[in-house]
Amino acid sequence: MNTTTTTGKLTNGHRLVLLPLPFQGHLNPMLQLANILHSKGFSITILHTRFNSPNPTNYPHFTFLPIPDTAGEPNPLISDVGMVIRFLHYINISFVDPIRGCLERLMSEDDGVACLITDAQWFGIQSVADELKLPRIVHRTSNISSFLFFAAYSRLTDTGCFGSFSDEETKSKSLAKGLEPLNHQDLSKFLTSDPESACKVIELMVEGTKRARAVIWNTFKELEEGELEALSQDFPNPHFLIGPFHKYFPASSSSLLAQDQTSISWLDKHPPKSVLYVSFGSIVKLEKSEFLEIAWGLANSKQPFLWVVRPGSIGGSEWLEPLPDEFLERIVEGRGYIVKWAPQQDVLAHRATGGFWTHNGWNSTLESICEGVPMICSPAFGDQLPNARYVSDVWKIGVELQNGFEREEIESAIKRVMVNAEGLEFRNKITNLKWKVNRCLEKGGSSYSSLEDLVSYILSF
Ligand code: UDX
């Protein structure tokens, strides 16, 4: 039944409760999804932690509800991935009761709750949903390819694939069938400093996803058709591929850091496709030595660059202190620009941007695909490793640095993407994907239709 609110907005009388994970790469897609579902007539309540809470003034059309009794929640110092993993364990135990309380209260109100949509990393909430007989849909913020990798994780552990990575032959050998694009070297990086906790989080996330009613993916069918087929064999729940979320509306306002808009005026002064954009997302941390290799790789490439250096992301420094004066005066003044945080979607869409050196967080990778910008890949952990492998070896829309951060290899990779004929091939392939993105969002396109199906599915509860 459709009703009209005082603001004149048509609603279908169904309230959805969305529970995001409080990290930038998870908040962005969840709030974008909330906007998409709101545009379909659902009323939206965002249940959130106090830590990294979204700014309600940017979303006056939603109701925001902080999870109560969690004032003592730890600040996980999110620059360290080990801490993120411990934080995930913590919230999935300590926040369960307060979340149950909130859901019970919302369900008892006149509006009720049609459905709960949580980030896949809120795996502890499935039992609450079962108890309350509330349908839970999982929103997986990354893609299907990397999920398949996570899902195979325990199987691979059993078959001893996580043994020694020291011998060169083993390192480059492919993994089990179905995971061919990945290799042992990817796995060695994947484990992080706390492999046991990381394994457990993955196992619980995969299990929680299997038990959910359905899964919403921020990806599109044309990109991962084979992977979707493979996924459906072990995960028979309905899958809704309705991405890329950020293309439904103008650039979102869920950034936790202020975006430096001078990035755009600086780009305005440059010729088309001439600038390399460099950013490693909201969590990756670098050693000082790696930071300097990046700086000299950029300098030696002689290409213009826009570089995001997040404050606190370089070990032992507040911001740019490790950079020698010579670099700042001669190189940056000449052809570089460094900011603390950029309006990334606008930067990637800018005509002057010709390449993206990224850590391959899924949002960054997808945003790059949507704008047809070829990539240089420096994955650090988790889904970034399979994402990078797909960019370089499967979709062939970029190159991956093989030796971490090493100035000669960086210089050569920048030239491959920005200058050489090879770069043109990457650009042609990624432009082709960009057109597919545009088509999938049009009426009758795969994501458009999947969104229609999702709306009907929720309304059927
Ligand atoms: C984290 C994980 O690291 C990533 O692997 C996972 O896929 C999602 O969660 P993060 O590292 O922050 O995310 O990377 P990413 O997924 O790329 O998300 C970063 C978001 O911040 C993007 O939406 C990007 O547009 C935005 N961003 C980044 C800015 O707005 N400005 C910047 O300067 C840099």
From TrEMBL:
Listed GO MF terms: UDP-glucosyltransferase activity
Matching InterPro entries: UDP_glucos_trans (IPR002213)
Keywords: Transferase
The gene coding this protein: UGT76C2
Pfam families recorded: UDPGT
Keyword Transferase: yes
Family: Belongs to the UDP-glycosyltransferase family.
Superkingdom of the organism of origin: Eukaryota
Protein name: Putative UDP-glucosyl transferase 76C2
Keyword Transferase set for record: yes
